[in-house]
Amino acid sequence: MVAEKSQQRMIYHFLLRQIKMGNYKSGDRFPTVKEIAGHFNVSYCPAQIALKTLEKDGYVRLSKGRTAEIIWQPDEKTEEALDFEERREVLRDLYEGLCHLSPLFRLQGLSLMDKEQLAELEQLLASDQEPLLFSLYKGFEDSLKPMKNQMLMYLFTDIDAFVGTALVDRMKRVNDGQGDRALEKVRKYLLNAIRCIKKQEYKNSFEQLLELSGYFKDFFDFDQKEICQKREAEAFSWEPQKGRKRYCDDIAIDLICKINQGVYPVDSYLPQGRLLADIYHVSPITMRRTINILNELGVAKNINGIGTKVIFPGDQTIYINEGYDNGQKSDSVFRSPADFSHHR
């Protein structure tokens, strides 16, 4: 239950940031519950609750049989930095926990990039073809990918979803409202770090990343004592994979039981993945991971062009390994924050 509530908050803040950044305007197509669930690799439930919370807070209107409609207009009211203020203390805690690790992660990731990857990242950050905030997000994400650490990428995705709206609100207040100046400084630090790596000046690159970490502290102004009293301060909760695998394990156990009961006998085929996803109220990605578990256990086998065939009924030798991971991760979980805006 704790993990599911954390998923709801993560999805809520992610979508709210999309709206506040202007990725969706009145009349634009908003992602469906199924698309949102697939993006975060969770069941439909937390995605649906996140959408309903957006409706309750006045950002979208939900209608049966239609995608959500954006009703919030940024120029209709002057908002205080509420998202930032109610998360100031937890942002301070996150910063203090990550400020010593983040530069090392970035340095390691950048060092593992080849010349072509570094050139592409440098071009992305130096170009003004995309909004600067999007380019910076993509740059931070790309600097971690070479490490091929799933848990680290989950952590980055979830922290970004939590911090995102606070970042947008904070931008309105720094440098007399000129938040783009602050982002330009972030871009400068990152570009300097990349160019040092290209010259194999790793110590200088690390110093640039350390300075960037220190700049974030000033950017968020953690030392200010003003705390928002309008709503209860919000907490950040995170655990590895946040229960995502639990859905796969539970469904796999249920399917094995049905195979033993003869609902899906040996040599028969399981229903198609999308149908099973609808039956169990989970995303297609979650169901694909479940089928992978059955394949790994030797209970089922994918037959190209036909479907998933039951090849073994299961017995006491079958168990669900909670540490199981096939090493694959759907790229959709790591899509950039603006990607939903392409579904219009």
UniProtKB/TrEMBL annotation:
<protein>
    <submittedName>
        <fullName>GntR family transcriptional regulator</fullName>
    </submittedName>
</protein>
<dbReference type="InterPro" id="IPR050679">
    <property type="entry name" value="Bact_HTH_transcr_reg"/>
</dbReference>
<keyword id="KW-0804">Transcription</keyword>
<dbReference type="InterPro" id="IPR000524">
    <property type="entry name" value="Tscrpt_reg_HTH_GntR"/>
</dbReference>
<dbReference type="GO" id="GO:0003677">
    <property type="term" value="F:DNA binding"/>
</dbReference>
<dbReference type="GO" id="GO:0003700">
    <property type="term" value="F:DNA-binding transcription factor activity"/>
</dbReference>
<feature type="domain" description="HTH gntR-type">
    <location>
        <begin position="5"/>
        <end position="74"/>
    </location>
</feature>
<dbReference type="InterPro" id="IPR036388">
    <property type="entry name" value="WH-like_DNA-bd_sf"/>
</dbReference>
<keyword id="KW-0238">DNA-binding</keyword>
<keyword id="KW-0805">Transcription regulation</keyword>
<dbReference type="InterPro" id="IPR036390">
    <property type="entry name" value="WH_DNA-bd_sf"/>
</dbReference>
<dbReference type="GO" id="GO:0045892">
    <property type="term" value="P:negative regulation of DNA-templated transcription"/>
</dbReference>
<dbReference type="Pfam" id="PF00392">
    <property type="entry name" value="GntR"/>
</dbReference>
